Amino acid sequence: MKACGILVLFLAGSLVARADDDTITLPELVQGAQQWAQENLDTNVLNALPEVDERAVQQFFREVQQRFQGDYVVDIAALRQTAKIILPLLESREETQPYAAWLRARMDYLDVADEIRLTIPPSKVETNQPPQPVPNPTPQKERELWVKKVSGGPWPALAKEYVPELKPIFAAQKIPPELVWVAEVESSFDRRARSPAGAAGLFQLMPDTAKRFGLSLWPRDQRFQPEPSATASAQYLKYLHDRFKDWRLALAAYNAGERTVQKLLDRYKTRSYDAIAEHLPAETQMYVPRVEATLWQREGAKLEQLSAPLS
Fold first, then answer.
1. What is the rounded average pLDDT of the residues 159-177?
2. What percentage of the chain exceeds 90 in pLDDT?
3. What are phi and psi of 200, to 5 degrees?
């Protein structure tokens, strides 16, 4: 019952995130979510649905954002059970399918975070002392976990269509074409994917990044077009490697932002990804080794051995 209440919040809140569609109001979204519930959920569950308001929607999304952008990977595990309930319901409704695509591409994060949680021995709680935060896995441990997680997994359904089409685009931008597999991690090659934070398309480009690399957001959002979005993503990855001189750091910046990575490099006086990995946002700590494991699984390519972009 609690999960169904959260579902209504998620349906409404996710659609509110569609900043480029000003024809939908919050009351209409809430009404639509509640109507769907009336048509698809048990009456006893309906009676338990709480009243929804804008602040409740915002609070739910703040929690999601806080855990992904928080300090500790294990905290993401708390989202796992709710996400499993929400995902099929989002997929069942056409207007929420872009958010379902985004969430589905991130379910592996929740599984790996939960696996990490289960391997942590109980901590000793001292009297009158707050519990200590669970330390993050080392970068090497993360890499091992992700190789195990993606090993043997099938290609996403649409990868067979998009990979041959998009590899030449990456090559034309003078970066390794294997990096097209970033799209599997970002969207499972579902170009409809849209995040509640505003990222969109195969490569989950934020609006400012898309415009920075020449994409138009209106009247047609080119982030949802495979070739333009691949070109912009490749250009951005090339720029990031030119700046940080390392593919792991470039990927970390692609996910967490350039300033986040630069600040950590400056703080710890290093140029090494491994030296800052455990201090990156929780999602980024898993994003980089996940891309790395995906490249190895799909191409037999090691990230650290990929060539630098050509001038």
1. 97
2. 65
3. -155, 155
CA-CA-CA-CA dihedral for 142, 202, 243, 173, to nearest 10: 130
CATH code given to domain 139-305 = 1.10.530.10
The β-bridge partners of 194 are 200
Q: Which residue has the tokens 């000793």?
A: 124
The Cα–Cα gap between 228 and 246 comes to 25
Would you mind telling me the total number of residues written for the chain in this entry? 311
Report H helices in 41-158.
43-48, 54-69, 80-91, 97-104, 107-118, 139-150
Q: Per mean pLDDT, which range of 6-15, 44-53, 168-177 is the poorest? A: 44-53
Strand partners, 205: 200
Question: Following DSSP, what letter does each residue of 237-283 receive, concatenated?
Answer: HHHHHHHHSSHHHHHHHHHH-HHHHHHHHHHTT---HHHHGGGS-HH
Q: Please check whether residue 100 is in contact with residue 90, taking contact to mean a CB–CB distance below 8 angstroms.
A: yes
Q: Is the pLDDT of residue 156 over 60?
A: yes
The DSSP call for residue 19 is: T
pLDDT band for position 122 (50/70/90)? low
The amino acid at residue 71 is: D
Which is more confidently placed, 305 or 86?
A: 305
- Whole-number pLDDT of residue 84: 83
Taking only the tens place, the pLDDT of each residue in 27-60 is 444 454 445 444 444 344 334 333 333 444 345 5
Structure confidence at residue 59 (pLDDT): 54
Cα–Cα distance measured from residue 164 to residue 149, given in angstroms and rounded to the nearest whole number: 25
User: Rounded to 10 degrees, what is the CA torsion of 248, 252, 253, 255?
Assistant: 140
Task: Output Rg (C-alpha) for the chain, integer angstroms.
Answer: 20
Q: How far apart are CA 201 and CA 19, in angstroms?
A: 15
Residue pair 218/233 in contact (Cβ under 8 Å)? The answer is no
Q: Report domain extents, the chain.
A: 2-115, 139-305
